[in-house]
Amino acid sequence: KMLNAKELVSVVFDMLREIAQNINVELINEVDENTKVYADEDKLNLLLLNLVDNAIKYNKEGGKVVVKARTEKGYVILEVSDTGIGIPKEHIPFIFERFYRVDRSRSRELGGTGLGLSIVKHIALSHGGKVEVESKEGEGSTFRVYLPQSI
Ligand code: ATP
Ligand code: MG
């Protein structure tokens, strides 16, 4: 199905708005109104929900979450950036594995199971796409999901 990316992001932001407000994290939807993405609506919603949930949960007081989208070489690239704690380089190769969590004690406090990113990866791959991450400890992270513009 052809989906409006900005609308999808705003639905996900609405689902997480209270959690974000509680820790004073600002949610910014910078997706262009015209960006269309070809995907299963429930699955793309779940993918974004997991990325934005992480971007809020591993953020800092007064931080931001920005979602952008662009089109490049036949792919729609959805980008979720945060100003949070970042991910130490040595952990990055493992974060998409099921149940993998960087800081066990901290993660336990925050709740969750460590499945979120494995679901994100599975959904991206099942759409013929991929997911990438760039992160700097103490500064924040950017997750990029590539989805083919059409099938
Ligand atoms: P769940 O998603 O099941 O609630 P989780 O958030 O711990 O639990 P994942 O979403 O799979 O699990 O993320 C795996 C680990 O990667 C997290 O425990 C966290 O350590 C790290 N991580 C994920 N996203 C971010 C982020 N945006 N900033 C910093 N660390 C992150
Ligand atoms: Mg998660």
Automatic annotation (TrEMBL):
Record field: transmembrane: none
Top-level division of the source organism's lineage: Bacteria
Span of domain Histidine kinase: 1-151
Subcellular localization: Cell membrane; Membrane raft
Name under which the protein is recorded: histidine kinase
Lineage of producing organism: Bacteria, Pseudomonadati, Aquificota, Aquificia, Aquificales
